[in-house]
Amino acid sequence: MKSQVFAFLFPWVVLVAQSMEPDGKPGSHAQRGFTVASIQSPPTLEQQKMDVTYYGLELDIRPDSKFFAGSLQIRANIEDTSITHLEFDLRNESYLLVASATLNGGSVAFDHSGNLIRIALPAAGPKPTSVEVHIDYTYGPVSATNYRPFNFDSHLGQDLIWTMSQPYDARAWWPCKDYPADKPDSMDMRVTVPGNMTVVSNGRLVSIQDGEDGRKTFHWHEGYPIATYLVSLAIYPYFIWGDEYVSAAGDTMPIEFYTFTDPDSPEPWYLTSNYLKTKDMLYTFVDLFGEYPFLDEKYGHAEWGLSYGMEHQTITSMGNPTERRVAHELAHQWRGDMITCATYQHMRLNEGFATHAAALWFESTGGTAAYRDKMNSLAYYGSGTIYIDVPTNSNVFRPGICQRRLGAPHVEARGWGFNVLSNPANLRRQPPI
Questions:
Q1: pTM exceeds 0.85, yes or no
Q2: Closest by alpha carbon to 399, among 23, 21, 22?
Q3: Is beta strand 216-222 parallel, antiparallel or unpaired with respect to 198-201?
Q4: For each successive 10 residues of the chain (433 residues), what is the average pLDDT?
Q5: CB–CB of 401/27 below 8 Å?
Q6: How many CB atoms lie within 10 A of CB 136?
Q7: What is the DSSP letter of 392?
Q8: How far apart are alpha carbons 283 and 388 in whole angstroms?
Q9: CA distance 372 to 366
Q10: Residue ranges per domain, the chain?
């Protein structure tokens, strides 16, 4: 699905270098230890001729072996009859092996090279208007290492599994059309793990099924369009607790927290108190931006193996939950998740919006002085441009590129952009599938 991407520029762009700010994301994947391609090319010509509408991903994860078996269902519409091949992004790594593929129910030959899976469409006869592809593959075994897009990690002596796919790393653990401009309408995640672990993912939890050898399968369904970089897994024997949000119309939505430690004795000490501010932040942002965009599902946090936050749709992966970070990642649900940049050249829109929104939260609790204090503390006047000519894994969050304040007065400059978000005619919200 190609709607719900954002293609115009807010005139109030209030942008600050997150990599210089303690609540932000690191400046590059190199700092996180990822081994990734340095420059990402645009979608191939063949990829531009199809529109993915659905992903169904099944993973059977074996933490002891640092291995999983994956099975993926893809549905797509064909938009250009000159298409000759279906092409899906998947890295060529020694630990990523494609076993088989089917096209519309029949076995089909495939080629996995150049970081693509290529499946030829029949040359004879008319092209189909839609296709369904199944791909079986395996991941691992991998070495005991941290900082991969799909991480076999540990915490407090127990297995911890988590993913981080921004900007170009969904393709490092599952086949997909890995570009933010093409969101599927919906997605299912069915993940089987040892029985002591809890699987957390996007959307709503449909079921938990007991299997053999004490293992369990968690089925999560995301019923709203979702960019591939926002698809997330966090898996651990979590403490599960939370709160509840009630909309002005009387609809209730769970606020779910998945934490390493008991909320009565949290680590860090401010975790529980800052998490419990989430509900008030929701009410503040709803007043500013319109209703929470995933009201039929949830919002929450799942702890992971990094010391910052990532705005995975409906479930932020959270580390070091400062008050500013909790507000920042929540704000991304409106701008970044519901409305998404078509390309990473415009990352300033995501990060500028969330940074400004966090300052507005502090204004709601501490007045104009608190707002100005937060904005001034984040100001950046260094080198760099706010438009990224050639986005790479190492510069999407680079100082002066991701976020930079342009010098317009804070209060006078902010209103127009938020009015755009709060006007239902501009949001194009839709019910989940």
A1: yes
A2: 21
A3: unpaired
A4: 47 35 43 44 93 98 97 98 97 96 98 97 92 98 78 96 94 97 97 98 98 96 98 98 98 98 97 98 98 98 96 98 98 97 88 94 97 88 75 57 38 36 41 68
A5: no
A6: 15
A7: B
A8: 34
A9: 10
A10: 5-23+343-427
